Amino acid sequence: MEPVILTRKNTAEGCEFIKDFTFRSGHTVPLYDISTTGALNQLIGHAKVANSQYGNVYYRGVDGLYDNVMPSLMRKRTSGSCDDLHSLLNTVCQDAYFHNSLKLRNTIVPQSQQDFEFNKRIMRYNKYCIEALLQHYAGSTRFLDVVDNHWVAMWMGAHHFHFHGKGGKFCQIQERKLSIASVYEYLVDRKSTPKQNAIYEYIILIAMPYSETAPEHGIIETETLVEVDLRKVFPSFYLRPHAQHALVVRRRDKQNINQEAAYYDMASQVVAVLRVRIDNAYEWLGYGTLVKEENLFPSPSIDQGYNNLLMHPEVFKYPFEILKYY
């Protein structure tokens, strides 16, 4: 079963179909301009109802419209082989401190082939958990960040994330602002493209299939895809995932026969793209405490899990260093 893609017929008052957008992979989805909160909610509702038999629809807020939906680790690689990542996952799995801190599951002493299979599954799921955490705090894995709260997705798309320092291990978050020139160009010619990324943010709607088996500890695994709900996997002293309504999704390695980085592109799961003027996004979100940086990216003095990770630079080395926000 495939995800159900919206069409130009899925409209609402305050929503305008702009064009069909085609990703590098050839996957095509509708691009809508959203000018009211009612249209935002209704289009998201269309996507959820259309995919109710397929699975869940999540949101990813970004600052530009790109021809791929690649996870961060694979954007500058051609090979999908990740020996450096696998080495780190094995190290963390075998570390007693992190095993306890992350509440990883224990294997058993195998007595049968069934026990060996059970242990293999536990180790695979533990590595999913660790890689999911790395995606959230280090930002460089095969996973893609998504959320199930479109307010948070909108906040992310309305901000720039600037990386500094050797290896880009320092991150500065800045509000995106509209220039007078950009607004003027938009008003003169709404179909023009040069300044679109300066005017808009984009919310990508990503559908993920239900599993044939019940989720295990916040993890859903199908034959080709996996998703991790960090709020169910990790204790809440790893605070940031709980504040952000965080999930991560990716393709399973077993299908990547040719070991290509492009395999991890999640574009095929996109069912629609919504664009929103940045000034509208700020008006709709407001400036309450729940949508401020200090809530969504709490400092290590509050986020004790974040502090735990920062205290172990000997484990989390480039390109998996824990990002420091300022």
Question: What key attributes describe this structure?
Answer:
326 residues, alpha+beta, 12 helices, globular, single chain
Task: Briefly characterize the structure.
It contains twelve helices and twelve strands. It is α+β, with helices and mostly antiparallel strands and 326 residues long. Strands 1-2-11-7-3 form a five-stranded mixed beta sheet. Strands 4-10-9-8 form a four-stranded antiparallel beta sheet.
Please provide a written account of the structure:
The chain is 33% helix and 22% strand. It is of the alpha+beta class. The chain has one domain. It has a 5-stranded mixed sheet with strand order 1-2-11-7-3. Strand 5 (159-164) and strand 6 (170-175) form a beta hairpin. Helix 2 packs across helix 4 (113-137). The longest helix is centred in the middle third of the chain and has 25 residues, at 113-137.
